[in-house]
Amino acid sequence: HLEEAHVLFEGSPAGAAFVDFGLHAFHNAKQSLEAGYGPYYYLPKLESHEEAGLWAKAFAFSENYLGLPQASFKATVLIETLTAVFEMHEIIHALKDYCVGLNCGRWDYIFSYIKKLASFPGRVLPDRQHVGMDQPFLENYSKLLIQTCHARGIHAMGGMAAQIPIKNNAEANEKAFEKVRNDKEREAKNGHDGTWVAHPGLIKTALEIFTKHMQGEVNQIHSPKQRSISISAKQLLAQPSGPLTRAGFENNCEAALHYLAAWLHGNGCVPLFNLMEDMATAEIARAQLWQWRTHHTTLEDGDGAKISMSQELIQNQLNALLDAQKKPDAFSVAPMAMYQQAARLLDAITQAK
């Protein structure tokens, strides 16, 4: 989905993912096999089995070009788009011997849900903090991924716990760890074979939980969990429930502004409000702002009143955040010029048709 402007193919910018893969494989594939492991990749953002088929061709070509044994390359596919969840069996088949697992890319999946269903007023999401894995559309996606993977004898990887350890605040730190424990308990009980955390300090917690539920096994591929479930398209598209509040609106503006400023300054992974945030955070926040404005969503004000979502409200909030950044003790992740540029960009994005 990204281009490499400095490498042309037939006169046009090459696909950046294939350029990165080609460079890495050329310089590392044979050496990694000789070292006892191999050229293993995560494939993000796929939307169809046709795209998976392109990667299978790239792997097969590279093995032949480099003189490697067949199926030397291995890939785990991130299921993080709404269309991909309907083609998981086909994606696995397209990659055949190369595919060792699928991964729940939950944050980008939420963004994809908003993006794909953007024009439907009945699919407006509530405040971002209320869109968790207990929402039916996310819970069903996770369980269907487990069922699909285990039916095909490959691994079902869980999603990212975004919490990070909080220094100098024992109570807040315990709450963060409790959220991680609850998240990983749910994944392990459902049948996932492994998971992600955002910080090395959380690895021990996740590992203890998965070790307990694995009961001495290295994975749960042969577990009966999720084997007999039947999940429909309607369940995968279920309308999320939850409040839409002024606090949620302000959080979206603030998170998107901080992240975009950091990104423009060259940092793509930023700790914000005790969470490790990446591009998916900004994508969800700005997409929600656009969605709420486009569908004239009514928000609950802090005083219990109703306020109509508008572009003016977004602009006023961004201006207030920029004014706050001028204070000497303001939390900052980038120079002021980056915040000003981020505000202009965010305003333009939320006004787009």
Structure in a nutshell:
By secondary structure, this protein is α/β, with parallel strands linked by helices.
Strand content: 5-15%
Oligomer: single chain
- What is the radius of gyration computed over CA atoms, rounded to a whole number of angstroms? 22 Å
End-to-end separation in angstroms reads 21 Å
> Helix and strand succession?
EEHEHEHEHHEHEHHHEEHEEHH
Low-pLDDT parts are none
Count of helix runs: 12
Classify the secondary structure makeup into a structural class: alpha/beta
Q: What general outline do the C-alpha atoms trace?
A: globular
* Beta strand count: 11
The proportion of residues forming helix, as a percent range, comes to 40-55%
Mean pLDDT: 95
Summarize the biggest pleated sheet: 5 strands, parallel
Strand order within the widest beta sheet: 3-4-5-6-7
Question: What are the SSEs and their pairings?
Answer:
Layout: E1 3-9, E2 12-15, H1 16-34, E3 40-43, H2 49-66, E4 74-79, H3 88-95, E5 99-104, H4 106-116, H5 136-151, E6 155-161, H6 170-190, E7 194-197, H7 203-214, H8 233-236, H9 246-264, E8 270-272, E9 275-277, H10 279-294, E10 298-300, E11 306-308, H11 311-325, H12 336-351
Parallel strand pairs: 3-4, 4-5, 5-6, 6-7
Antiparallel strand pairs: 1-2, 8-9, 10-11
Helix pairs in contact: 2-3, 4-10, 6-7, 9-10, 9-11, 9-12, 10-12, 11-12
